[in-house]
Write a structure and sequence with these properties.
Elements: H1 3-23, H2 27-52, H3 56-86
Helix pairs in contact: 1-2, 2-3
């Protein structure tokens, strides 16, 4: 299979993820959109690494996965804390928390 197909798939996944972040007001859906964009970036890094025959893209994809795992832990903790305080996970509500 041609690696350019994976690059096209990564672009489609990134577009879906960015649409989820920009259009949805639910924090969980927006969070999933960010994760989808990170996975699309990983797919493109690995695809370009395969096209050029080097391992640099795969190493970068590994570091992006490590950052994504840390983001999941912190992001879900923040979402749960806001839900416990406000009983909602809407992205419009935390703007009212400004001091």
């Amino acid at each position: 299979m041609d690696p350019i197909n994976f690059v096209i798939l990564a672009a489609i996944l990134f577009a879906i993820g960015s649409a989820a972040v920009l259009l949805r007001r639910n924090a969980i859906i927006a969070f999933m959109g960010v994760e989808l964009m990170l996975n699309a970036a990983n797919l493109s890094l690995v695809s370009f690494s395969r096209i050029h025959g080097e391992i640099d893209g795969q190493v970068m994809a590994f570091f992006v996965m490590v950052v994504a795992a840390a983001e999941v832990v912190v992001g879900l903790a923040i979402i749960i804390a806001v839900f416990r305080a406000r009983q909602t996970i809407s992205l419009d509500e935390p703007s009212e928390l400004k001091g």
